[in-house]
Amino acid sequence: MKVLFPLLQVLLTSLVLSTIGSAAADDGDCSPAEGTCRVYNILGKPEEYTESTVPGVKLAVRRWTPDDVKSVVLFAHGGTYGAGFHSGYSDIMGKSFQEAGIAVISYDVAGSGYSDGLKDKNGNTLRNYFDSMDTLTNDFTKVLNDVRSQYPTKKVFAVGESFGCKILLAQIMKEQEQSKGSLADGYVFSGPVVQLLPEMLPPKPVIAVMSFIAKFFPMLTMPGTDFFSTFDLAFGDKAWAQTGRHDPFVIEAASIPPKLGMIISVLNSLKKLNDSLETIGVPFKIFVGENEGRVDVDAIKRLAKVAKSTDKDIEIVPGAYHQLFQDLPEVTQLVCRHIQEWILARS
Ligand SMILES: *[C@@H]1O[C@H](CO)[C@@H](O)[C@H](O)[C@H]1NC(C)=O
C-alpha cells in the first residue's frame, strides 16, 4: 500500500486536473475591484430552494420566466466538482431564453454554489462532493418531475453544459431502463463530457485497483491540484476566466481535494456510458466548440453517430471553446439562438 498510494495519487492528480482545465494563464493577478481586469456579473444567493433526494439537503433554484411560456428548459450547469461553477453563471443564457419565450429553471447541484452539501458521518458538510452519480441523476429526475407538474401543458427540455451533460446522459440511461422512466422531451448537450480525454485517464489496471481501494476507503482524499495554471482555456472570452478566478466558490473548490469514491463513481459511470452509447434513444442535439480542448471530441462524435435516437444532430460552433454559455457574446448568442430554434420546433 505504501508504494501504491503515491502512484495512485500522481495518477489521480492528473486525472482530476484533466477535468478542470487546460491552458496556462499569465494574467491571473489582476484585480476586478481596482478595475484592472474585466469580469462578468455572477448571480448571488437565490431566494428559492427545493429538496434534494438526499434527506436534509436543500438545492438552490433559479428561474428565468417569460410572460408567455412557450416551452420549458431544466438546465444542468457544468464545472461542478473541482471547478466551483453553479447556476449563477447562467444569467446571459437564461435571459436570452426568457426573451425567446422559453422558461429556464436551474439548480446548483448538491455541494456546489448555494446548495447544501452532503454530510459526512460526523455531521460535517462536504463541499464539492457527491457520494455517487446516482445522487446527481436522482436529483435531476426529481426536479424534472417538479417542473413537469409546474408546467403540465408544456414540453420540458433538458439542457446541460460540460459535466452537467454527463449527469443528463447517466439520467437518460437510468430512466430508459425503467418502464415508465422520467425523461425530458429532448436533450441539448453543450460541450458534453461523454469521455474524459484518453491521455488523461490512468491505465485500465490502475483504475481497477483504484476501484478496489475505493470500496474500503471511499473518503480517501487525493492531493490538491494546481488548479489555476490550467483554468483559462475553457473560455473563449478571457473575462469569463477572470470572473471564475475571482469567484469565492471557484477558489474554494480549488482548495478541496477530491475523494476517491467520488472519482471512481464518475469513472464507472463514464465506462458504462461508453459501452452503451447506442442505447441512447431520446431526441437530442449536441453543440461543441471548434476549439474544444477539455473533453473527448471523438467520443462526442461517436455518441452522435451510434445513438439509436431517430432525432439527433451535432453542430460544431466555429471559433468557440468549451464553455459555450461563457464565450464571446456573439458566440454565446448564436448558440442560444440555435438551441431555442431546436426547442421551439419541438414544442
Ligand atoms: C470507448 O468505446 C470505444 C469504442 O467501443 C473504445 O474504442 C474506447 O476504448 C472506449 N473508451 C474507454 C475509455 O473505455
TrEMBL record:
InterPro entries: AB_hydrolase_fold, Hydrolase_4, MAG_DAG_Lipase. Keywords: Signal. It comes from the Eukaryota. It holds the Pfam family Hydrolase_4. Residues 1-25 form the signal peptide. Residues 69-327 form the Serine aminopeptidase S33 domain. This is Lysophospholipase. It comes from Seminavis robusta. The lineage of its organism: Eukaryota, Sar, Stramenopiles, Ochrophyta, Bacillariophyta.
